[in-house]
């Protein structure tokens, strides 16, 4: 999954021959999972039709402040467009538009939207060789960068005039790649490796039956996605779960038993910066696993259980520079039990939730947590979706890393 997935992208198209490339650019943004809206200068419609970009973006294309619909005039609100976007890209950006952006000239909807934008703004110049090399153009580019706008450099090659040199708009694939790399480079967990466990474990009784629990893995998978979206490379050790994840930064390792999870965690732990153990690992397993299905009898069946290895404690014992985060699902004496785990297992943080809280616990879409650090400082959160809870958890981890 691209880091652009779920992003709101506002594409500004100006009147250069390279405008024909914006059809492919919109297609690539959509393919990456972004939502796209397009604003065109009136003259850019001579190079590519609004219908083409509207069809590809699945949104209306705007180019004027007012549009007629039947007998009514509809106002295209440049402020709303600017506030809607997570990022804005002006491509192609002609010499004329660059100059207007620099000087605050506001004579069309695109420029009004640019001046209203609160998000990062990328611009991809496109013009002929001499125009690109002209001091006024270089001055415009330097000024725009000083404003915080982000230049996507023009490429060299054959130009519309027949000249060969710098001035070609970057290819759509290169524009998307540039923006993705720029976003990743600024993410707070960029360069960090995270080990994360999720879901239940199944402890075999015989080839058919097992001891398990009701964990769905939803919470752990949401934490994995949030960490990956913030730039982390995530090793997700997942017990049996129907949850799915597709992200280029997430490596999923499927396991079944507590022993499988123990081995996987110890395999990756030494190379990670952060370990978040959210899985509901079985505390006990059958001491003897039957090789054949156990037949039902009229008499009672007794299964002798033995403790499984304590994965969290074992990682705490060998912890070096890793930040180690545990989870505690409690039914009574919640805070006291969670604090005792911090000390016993050498944790930096523990995420506590209680089965006494309505909407929290296994197989729900919501959770209510308290995060406690090694100094026993507590921070409680309201009931939220597990997606939002995952953000609270990762934010606390980032705060801890930066402390």
TrEMBL record:
Q: What InterPro entries would the database entry show?
A: CoaB-like_sf (IPR035929), CoaBC (IPR005252), DNA/pantothenate-metab_flavo_C (IPR007085), Flavin_trans-like (IPR036551), Flavoprotein (IPR003382)
What the record notes about the co-factor is: Binds 1 FMN per subunit.
Q: Where is this region: Phosphopantothenoylcysteine decarboxylase?
A: 1-193
Residue span of the signal peptide, if any? none
Q: Where does CTP bind?
A: 283, 293, 327, 341, 345
Question: What is its cofactor?
Answer: Mg(2+); FMN
Recorded superkingdom: Bacteria
Query: By its UniProt entry, which SUPFAM superfamilies does this protein fall under?
Result: CoaB-like, Homo-oligomeric flavin-containing Cys decarboxylases, HFCD
Its annotated pathway? Cofactor biosynthesis; coenzyme A biosynthesis; CoA from (R)-pantothenate: step 3/5; Cofactor biosynthesis; coenzyme A biosynthesis; CoA from (R)-pantothenate: step 2/5
GO MF annotations for this entry? FMN binding; metal ion binding; phosphopantothenate--cysteine ligase activity; phosphopantothenoylcysteine decarboxylase activity
Q: Where is this region: Phosphopantothenate--cysteine ligase?
A: 194-403
Return the EC number: 4.1.1.36, 6.3.2.5
Where the record annotates domain DNA/pantothenate metabolism flavoprotein C-terminal, the positions are 189-399
What reaction(s) does this enzyme catalyze? N-[(R)-4-phosphopantothenoyl]-L-cysteine + H(+) = (R)-4'-phosphopantetheine + CO2; (R)-4'-phosphopantothenate + L-cysteine + CTP = N-[(R)-4-phosphopantothenoyl]-L-cysteine + CMP + diphosphate + H(+)
Q: Name one GO cellular component term.
A: phosphopantothenoylcysteine decarboxylase complex
Task: Identify the residues that the record assigns to the Flavoprotein domain, covering every copy.
Answer: 7-180
In its UniProt record, which GO terms are filed under biological process?
coenzyme A biosynthetic process; pantothenate catabolic process
Sorted alphabetically, which keywords does the UniProt record give? Decarboxylase, Flavoprotein, FMN, Ligase, Lyase, Magnesium, Metal-binding, Multifunctional enzyme
Per the record, the similarity remark reads: In the N-terminal section; belongs to the HFCD (homo-oligomeric flavin containing Cys decarboxylase) superfamily. In the C-terminal section; belongs to the PPC synthetase family.
Described purpose of this protein according to its UniProt entry: Catalyzes two sequential steps in the biosynthesis of coenzyme A. In the first step cysteine is conjugated to 4'-phosphopantothenate to form 4-phosphopantothenoylcysteine. In the second step the latter compound is decarboxylated to form 4'-phosphopantotheine.
Designated name of the protein: Coenzyme A biosynthesis bifunctional protein CoaBC
To which species is this protein native?
Tenacibaculum aiptasiae
- The gene designation is coaBC
């Amino acid at each position: 999954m691209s880091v652009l997935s779920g992003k709101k992208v506002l594409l500004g198209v100006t009147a250069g021959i390279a405008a024909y490339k914006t059809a492919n650019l919109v297609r690539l943004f959509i393919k990456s999972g972004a939502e796209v809206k397009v604003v065109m200068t009136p003259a850019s419609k001579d190079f590519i039709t609004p219908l083409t970009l509207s069809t590809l973006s699945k949104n209306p294309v705007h180019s004027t402040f007012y549009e007629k619909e039947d007998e009514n005039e509809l106002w295209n609100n440049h402020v709303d467009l600017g506030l809607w976007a997570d990022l804005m890209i002006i491509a192609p950006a002609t010499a004329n538009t660059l100059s207007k952006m620099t000087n605050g000239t506001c004579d069309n909807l695109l420029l009004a939207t640019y001046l209203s934008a609160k998000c990062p703004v990328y611009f991809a110049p496109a013009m002929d060789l001499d125009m690109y090399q002209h001091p006024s153009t270089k001055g415009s580019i330097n000024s725009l960068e000083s404003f915080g706008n982000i230049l996507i450099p023009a490429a060299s090659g054959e130009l519309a005039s027949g000249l060969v040199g710098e001035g070609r708009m970057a290819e759509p694939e290169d524009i998307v790649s540039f923006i993705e790399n720029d976003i990743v480079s600024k993410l707070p967990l960029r360069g960090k490796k995270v080990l994360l466990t999720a879901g239940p474990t199944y402890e075999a009784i015989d080839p058919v039956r097992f001891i398990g629990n009701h964990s769905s893995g939803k919470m752990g998978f949401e934490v994995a996605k949030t960490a990956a979206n913030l730039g982390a490379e995530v090793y997700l050790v997942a017990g049996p779960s129907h949850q799915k994840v597709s992200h280029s930064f997430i490596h999923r390792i499927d396991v079944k038993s507590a022993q499988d999870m123990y081995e996987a965690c110890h395999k990756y732990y030494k190379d990670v910066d952060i370990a978040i153990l959210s899985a509901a690992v079985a505390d006990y397993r059958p001491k003897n696993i039957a090789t054949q299905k156990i037949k039902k009898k009229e008499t009672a069946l007794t299964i002798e259980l033995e403790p499984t290895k304590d994965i969290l404690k074992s990682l705490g014992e060998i912890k070096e520079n890793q930040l180690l985060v545990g989870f505690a699902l409690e039914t009574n004496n919640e805070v006291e039990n969670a604090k005792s785990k911090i000390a016993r297992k050498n944790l930096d943080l523990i995420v506590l939730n209680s089965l006494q809280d309505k909407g929290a616990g296994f197989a729900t879409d919501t959770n209510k947590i308290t995060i406690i650090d090694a100094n026993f400082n507590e921070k409680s959160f309201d009931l939220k979706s597990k997606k939002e809870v995952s953000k609270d958890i990762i934010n606390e981890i980032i705060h801890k890393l930066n402390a």
